[in-house]
Amino acid sequence: MFDAARRFRVTAVALAATSLMLVGAGCADFGDEDRARSAGDFSPNSLTPVIPTPAPPSSPSNNPDQPPPTGPCVDPDPAVIATCLGATSAVTAGDAQGESTVVAERTTGQIISTRRNGPRRIVGTVPVDADSDGGLMDFAPSPTFEQDQLIYAYISTASDNRVVRIAPGDTPKPILTGIPKGATGNVGSIHFKSPTELIVATGDAGDPAAAANPSSLAGKLLSVTALNSGSTAPPRVLASGLGANAVICSDAADGSLYLTDRAPTEDRLQIIDTTGTLRPLWTWPDRPGISGCAAANGSVVISTARTQRVEMLSAPTRERPTVEPPVVVLEKRYGAFGRMAASASGVFQVGTINKQVGRPGPTDDRVVRFMPPNASQSRL
User: Fold this and answer.
1) 122, 158, 182, 259: which sits with the fewest CB atoms below 10 Å from its CB?
2) DSSP, residue by residue, 267-309
3) What digits encode the pLDDT tens for the residues 335-351?
């Protein structure tokens, strides 16, 4: 399966090597008809996709002959690679080693690239309505990002949750609209399964009955193949009954897809098979507040907000079909955890959401980089 996050990292390396900066000036051709279509409840937006580049050799962050940087947003913890953010939502590793990050702020609608003690660059800003748990909830680069510089985003407006397409110098274009918006349960996510298919997981909008209703887009796993704005083709429903905080993650090693959500009676980790059917891998009846997941090399990690943990388990294989209980690899060290990402090298990143549900510290919110132990190790 195609891994869009990995392609985004490859693009970042290529751009850094050629010293290019992408600017919003006619980089994608929508055509007159496409530009004339309704863009929803947005104001004009200019997207400048600047991808993270490695810090120069003389940077104080990696030069032992220079004193460490100081200031209100400098975190002494070397695992912290981004600070002083708004409550985070989607996180993507900006390079193969996971030393830089591309992170979304839920309430501001900003997508930001940065690294530890490095410059902060705004990749783009999407107008959002951040009431309750809505806002900018996820983003994914186009599978042909190097050529078209398009980014897709899952957002909230005043009237609905939706998927939009963003091009440099253009207003966001609606791709999928009418996803119900509620007082809670708005968080959803997107993932390119292939260059022509976008998988969308929608929250239940605080209404489990709507998640079971085939006529509602709430609480669904959807397949979207009409990726141009103005299309009237309805999405294909792959699965129903999703709860709140529906998040997709992928293991780039084998293309496995996973989904976490919060059902009324339990939090869940499920695997998405090749047909879109959901199969439970593990459940948490104590409802720790699962916020997201990431996967690499056969291991899956999940993050929680209420218990402030990162837990890890091994995905089942033909040789080992039984799923062992997850082990705790981080706990109550950084506060409430949000979304996660895995780098190509197997290093994970997790954002904090202390400004949303926790007790923010002086450098919150943050993105933390870590390498967990093997999932087969004993519970910490």
Assistant:
1) 158
2) EEEEEE-TTS-EEEEEEETT---EEEEEEETTEEEEEESSS-E
3) 999 999 999 999 999 99
